[in-house]
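sry for the spam today, last one i promise. C-alpha cells for design, 236 residues
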C-alpha cells in the first residue's frame, strides 16, 4: 500500500506579508547599518543617503510590520499566535530531533512538524524581541524629543542599538541555511510555503487498512499542542 501526499494551507496571508516585509526591512537595515558604521563611506552625501533614504525608512517599515505581527501574535490562537511558538512538553522530542538533524549535517531524519519547526519556534520569539529593541532604540536615536522625554543619552542608546546586530545577522543566516536544508532533505516545501501559504505532507498508509486522506502523518506532540481543523470525509 503506497503513501499519499496532501497539500494543505498552513500560513495565513497576513503572516506571510509581515514575514516578507520584515525580511526586506532587516536586509536593508543590516547592509546599510554595516556601511554606516564600517568607516568605508567617505562621502557625506552617500552617508546621508544611506541613513535618510535607506536605513531610517527601513526601520519605520520594520516597526510597522512588527506592530502588525505582534497584534496577530496576541490575537491569533492558531499558527500565528504565542502558543505555536512556545515549547510544550510534547515538543521536546521534536527539538532534540531537530538538533540531531543539524548536528549530523542532515544525515538523520528531519522531524515532522505542521507549521513552525519545534527547534526554531522559540527562536522566532527571541528574534522578534531583538527586533523590538532595535526599533525602539532606533526611534529614540532618531527623535531627540523622545530621548529627552525618557531622559536617555545617545551613547547608551547606540550601544543598545548596535549590541544585538551580530546575533540578528547570525540568526538570519542560520534561518536561510536551515530553510534551504529543509527543502533539500525534507518533504514540506518550506520556501514556497511562505510564498503561497501551503505545505506538503506525506500521508502514511496503514497496513491492511485503506488509506485515510484526511489523516496527516504529523506527530501531535511535535506541533505545540495545536492542530489544523480536520475535514469530515463526507465533505471531501
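last one done:
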Amino acid at each position: 500500500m503506497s503513501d499519499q501526499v496532501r497539500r494543505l494551507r498552513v500560513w495565513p496571508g497576513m503572516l506571510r506579508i509581515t514575514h516578507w516585509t520584515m525580511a526586506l526591512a532587516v536586509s536593508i537595515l543590516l547592509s546599510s547599518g554595516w556601511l554606516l558604521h564600517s568607516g568605508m563611506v567617505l562621502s557625506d552625501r552617500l552617508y546621508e543617503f544611506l541613513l535618510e533614504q535607506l536605513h531610517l525608512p527601513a526601520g519605520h517599515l520594520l516597526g510597522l510590520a512588527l506592530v502588525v505581527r505582534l497584534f496577530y501574535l496576541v490575537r491569533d490562537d492558531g499558527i500565528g499566535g504565542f502558543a505555536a511558538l512556545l515549547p510544550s512538553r510534547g515538543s521536546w522530542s521534536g527539538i532534540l530531533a531537530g538538533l540531531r538533524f543539524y548536528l549530523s549535517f542532515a544525515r538523520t531524519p528531519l522531524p515532522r512538524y505542521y507549521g513552525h519547526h519545534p527547534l526554531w519556534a522559540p527562536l522566532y520569539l527571541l528574534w522578534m524581541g531583538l527586533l523590538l529593541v532595535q526599533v525602539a532604540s532606533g526611534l529614540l536615536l532618531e527623535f531627540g524629543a523622545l530621548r529627552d522625554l525618557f531622559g536617555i543619552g545617545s551613547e547608551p542608546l547606540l550601544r543598545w542599538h548596535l549590541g544585538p546586530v551580530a546575533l540578528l545577522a547570525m540568526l538570519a543566516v542560520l534561518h536561510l541555511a536551515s530553510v534551504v536544508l529543509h527543502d533539500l532533505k525534507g518533504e514540506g516545501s518550506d520556501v514556497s510555503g511562505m510564498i503561497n501559504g501551503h505545505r506538503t505532507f506525506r500521508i502514511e498508509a496503514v497496513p491492511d487498512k485503506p488509506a485515510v486522506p484526511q489523516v496527516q502523518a504529523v506527530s501531535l506532540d511535535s506541533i505545540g499542542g495545536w492542530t489544523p481543523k480536520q475535514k469530515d470525509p463526507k465533505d471531501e
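The longest helix spans residues 44-75. ok im logging off now
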